[in-house]
Amino acid sequence: xxxxxxxxxxxxxxxxxxxxxxxxxxxxxxxxxxxxxxxxxxxxxxxxxxxxxxxxxxxxxxxxxxxxxxxxxxxxxxxxxxxxxxxxxxxxxxxxxxxxxxxxxxxxxxxxxxxxxxxxxxxxxxxxxxxxxxxxxxxxxxxxxxxxxxxxxxxxxxxxxxxxxxxxxxxxxxxxxxxxxxxxxxxxxxxxxxxxxxxxxxxxxxxxxxxxxxxxxxxxxxxxxxxxxxxxxxxxxxxxxxxxxxxxxxxxxxxxxxxxxxxxxxxxxxxxxxxxxxxxxxxxxxxxxxxxxxxxxxxxxxxxxxxxxxxxxxxxxxxxxxxxxxxxxxxxxxxxxxxxxxxxxxxxxxxxxxxxxxxxxxxxxxxxxxxxxxxxxxxxxxxxxxxxxxxxxxxxxxxxxxxxxxxxxxxxxxxxxxxxxxxxxxxxxxxxxxxxxxxxxxxxxxxxxxxxxxxxxxxxxxxxxxxxxxxxxxxxxxxxxxxxxxxxxxxxxxxxxxxxxxxxxxxxxxxxxxxxxxxxxxxxxxxxxxxxxxxxxxxxxxxxxxxxxxxxxxxxxxxxxxxxxxxxxxxxxxxxxxxxxxxxxxxxxxxxxxxxxxxxxxxxxxxxxxxxxxxxxxxxxxxxxxxxxxxxxxxxxxxxxxxxxxxxxxxxxxxxxxxxxxxxxxxxxxxxxxxxxxxxxxxxxxxxxxxxxxxxxxxxxxxxxxxxxxxxxxxxxxx
Amino acid sequence: xxxxxxxxxxxxxxxxxxxxxxxxxxxxxxxxxxxxxxxxxxxxxxxxxxxxxxxxxxxxxxxxxxxxxxxxxxxxxxxxxxxxxxxxxxxxxxxxxxxxxxxxxxxxxxxxxxxxxxxxxxxxxxxxxxxxxxxxxxxxxxxxxxxxxxxxxxxxxxxxxxxxxxxxxxxxxxxxxxxxxxxxxxxxxxxxxxxxxxx
Lengths: 719, 199
Description:
The complex is a heterodimer of chains A (719) and B (199). With 719 residues, chain A is an alpha+beta fold. The longest helix of chain A has 32 residues, at 110-141. Chain A starts with a strand and ends in a 20-residue tail after the last strand. Chains A and B meet through helix 1, strand 2, strand 4, helix 5 and helix 18 of A and helix 2 and strand 1 of B.
């Protein structure tokens, strides 16, 4: 049976998914109970998990869930927002095209159907073009001045203080984990983060954690969640085959093959003529194994980690020699250990035994760990890379809850990985010198906004009034530092403020010295490295310097931001162009955050509506209006339970005037969310939508076609 | 086409009238209800199929016993069901008032009576809902399609009235009694309006 793929079908599906997901979105969201056909019950607030637990045979539903899953795999956040936003976009599209669809579909002629299909293809093309060209432009030009930074920056380096990370993670977990546990889990995550990161840690640590997250956590069922803890070192998911407690320095060796020599190697024949020969061979094997073990002991190897099962003979001699053996380790664990300690496996030469075993490493300790009824090996590693290995012991009364916490933590790591990376924006700007009226307000605003300096941390509030900062009445519970250090105009002001308040900027220094992550900014940051600045920040600087001049980035040099002393002169060359399309490169710096509660959506809505007013092209106007209206659906659901002063219309009406007069947004909610995460959700939804809109026809078949026949056409969808 | 021909279409487009807005609103609410119900069923383990219902176009669900289920047809009323005066006392009242205003002789109810759903759920009849909370009431009587509409309505109302009074006599709970009194009052008002109509 062939069904016309249309916005109507997609909207029905999306509305059903939205009805499910909207119950658990946001901090006020509740747990959703899902019963699988096998009888298992899933109680969760995690959008991705819920969507994957549903039984969906409808092809459009499966496309949507597949898009959500691939989005989550990369970013770890935003499944529910994805569905809600998609649903609102589809509603908007239906409203736009409703007047064309008054004729019921069965009465449409072929020509009309074809026209409808072309219309959807056109719309999806317009959406993609908008996403690639205009969205980046709006993010860069308008939204960027509202961004806050999770880092607190000093002259030379950026620091991440615990309270801002807590705000970010609180907001992340309170939408994902049950209400009684989310505070605890976010504290646990904060502790883990600060324990594992050293001052030179960069984003490669996140990659390591993301790749090996399974090895870095241990699940224990039957204990309350509050028993979860972080322990130093690594916990191997196996028990000792031989346990010989040892003190002091010890070395560990990793083997990937059986130590005991075999009767014959592969490819060769072993010929026995008599019983005596057999016994001689056996005795030789025993002696050989014994000498290998003795040799290991002489090298002070007290622990043998094996990825295969060692034979009883090896175990026996190891016990005699006092060497602990752990075998049947998974290859992921072995490779993880090798990554951290960086040593290579031990290969036994066939011929000569008395070789130097160079492939060993020192460990601090190695002991047995008993959690509930299971035994593990607890290794104290000496790490050579920038990651200090710690292990999370996750406890929970049932397996399902532990799994949910584990996936929430995993998602949080992915989210942090995305947050601590710069994100490149590329867009093509068509510039008309006469119509470049957008720049003057930009110039003014950037000046104004940089004079606001709000410092990160709770206890410090009063001293700022002495620095002449405006809007003192806006001091809320938590304050953040804004970084606009790429703008040369602002560097002087930034310097003075920082030098004044430097001793107060990191109050956690006095309280808890290990609670700050001081990081040297990675190579492409703009604080210290001059040459990289040029590549990343050309266009923004050009516009703020001179409203009417467009600059190509080769001719531009940027002033360094505070403190280094090597300030380069600002040079620019004016190009007299009337209407050129410039490809501009910029980036969202790492650590950009916004307050939770719909700030990103409201901001983007406002600027999209403004853009639509000034835009000339019809498609862009329609698409920007469509996206702007759909964006408001998300905060509407978040504020659904609130009434009166806190309800969404009131909040929106209060925010609008501050945006119109270009003041910074006041947000009373404590909590931060990552800008890059939100941006990723937006782009993923637009791409999913274009995929859905280009479906013309859905044909159901009973079974997969055999490989020999060619696929019919692009618009055949099978399941 | 919406995007390309927007300038042309805009000149001929008028905003919807109040009646149309009401219809659109009702349709949207119905759609919301359908989505919510479908979401509930999906969470209970039902499977969303790739086919749509032939009658109403809603996506079909399949339960664990592999039975196909359409949420809109089998659970929600159809759009016109609530206007059927044979099943709904409110509809009868509003119809009577309309006829008073328009001073028409014979209300054209024939067409609406044919649109009865096969198994109407008693709880969705607003007039009967109150009385049925405590105990299962009798199913609404099957209407012959060509009977006199006003007489049918009167018979139905009288039946409900007698039933409600019987229930009221035997009822022990305060809540139920209050609801039954409400039902009796509504039936009496409806009967009164119908009698005025006849005269």
